[in-house]
Design goal:
29 helices, 2 strands, 627 residues, mainly alpha, 59% helix
Length: 627
Amino acid sequence: MPWFARERAIEMDEDLRRRVVEDPAFALAMPLEDVARVESAAAEREGQLSLANGECAYAAAFYGLALRALALDRARAPMDASARRRKRIELRLRLGDARAGANEPGRACGAYAAALRGLGLIAKKRATREGEENEPEGVLGRERRDGEECEETYDDGGDEETFAKEKPRIAAAFLRKANESSSKASIKGLVDGEVMFRIGRACQMAGRYNRALLAYETALVLQPDGPRDASATQVYLACGEMYLSLQMADYALECFRKVMKRPMEASLGTGDVLCEIASCYRVLRLPEEESRCMKSVCSDPLHKPIRTTNVIRVAWYRYERDKDAARALRELTEANVVKKTSEGLYTKGRVHAETGNFDAADACYVEACKMEPTSPKIWLEIGNLYLNGFQIPTIAVKAYGRAKELATFMQLQEDALRAARGYGCVSEGQTKFADSSEVTATHENAVIGRGDAFTELGQVSSALREYEQVPETGRVQIRKMKIMIWAVVALQRAYRRHKARMNAEIASGIRRPALLPAARPQEARPKISEALLAKRANRPKTEVKPAKNKYETITRQITRTATPRDRAPMDMLKDFTIKPAKNYVSPNASPATKRKTKGVGLFDFSRAEQKTPIATAPSSGRTSLFK
């Protein structure tokens, strides 16, 4: 191609480039007027140069600026919708690579998620934004398009709800068909096995295990030999760890058995793989198989583990089985000499605490806490040491409180429990939780231990408040019962001391005894003759009738005479009155007055109305209700 036919290299404005280099966050906060001056191709070129030089943070800023410029480049660089979609997906994938290189797995996962949504491999988000000024009244928001460049677009939207084995096969078939030579798909050649491996690694580091498994399994179908910079054994190891964390022990066993064939490719020994297989059997509740694997690791020199975390695990297992503290301390000391970790110091402190060497245990816990101050396990053991060992409940309350706070945070932030876990990660030598149930158990132990410390301090009300925060298990009920018994005994002792003090004051003359009031002599009553008693016994007994209801009389008067069928009910109420009737007798009158006058009660009908014949209706056909 002659020199005049070559395309002119597009350069970025030097002033804007300098401002992005000085502050990479300026690329996302740049006003739209300045973004309109930037060409997408120029910003992309700057990002490629920065990524090639290893300046991943600058590369991420330039790629983000290129995506913003692409959204405004429609008039300046017209292209069809499919080409624009392809360029947007390509830039988002490169943005994810740059974020991952800058050690930002969360933001890298968001960029990859936006690209996967554009590819259609994961579901799109239904994100809405608040209504703008030019939108009609009453419209609160509208659905956000995936092509818009905003903060919500690059939010990964959380992990996938579940993982199914058929999803990777479907995704791999889709990508394989799109990458065929005869394919005319707009995404042809964009995504292959290498890209899916990078996406899986970023999602694993961010704690999005379901999405990472989807990417890894899809990549293994497309490229069974593994990525260029790693082996398939390492991918199977990562998949096994994530399956185990998700309590999918069957799939984890399949992966670990594949790792067992070539463990050295993953920088592991057979003992390390057997420890992971034992963890799978523990989740499956097969203690015999778990014990068989751990015994093989402990007894066979060929299965000696290589990883420090597994060396510590084997040493603790052997100590629990044999109770050989000297050997366990020697092995843990050697492991900490090779690589000092918080997990090794924590385990060594537990051995010292069980053997009664509280000062050495305290030193190990303090050093482990300095290396990993956010571990609830370490703070829990510090609380146990100061409550049961040194018997200083004031310090134990603070340690238990810290363990309780950290465990509560882990329960709320489940992704923090999974992020950056596994072999080769920064947290490899830290204290670990197999699943969320261990975090819950640590939280309960911290709450109960704090209640015990309050009980030792005599603050039983605070102890009861702590016990109310955990489920009503047997050990909690026993502690509550002890507090109630203690309260009853303390009340009895206080009462006895009070009585003894009162008696001592009375004996010494300080207090005058309180005497009971003298009983009055009963006046002599005349005796009743036997004849009078017999007369009273033989007289007839009168039954006491219940009081009549005030509406009983009117009810009896209404039901005494049959109601004529041809008379309207309203006509019957013409002469009804609430005034006292003529022969009304008060209920408080004497029996003689009641016998003389035959009363009819407070409400009554007129007797004359009962004797008068039924009146005929007027000729107009309407019945008069009132005279």
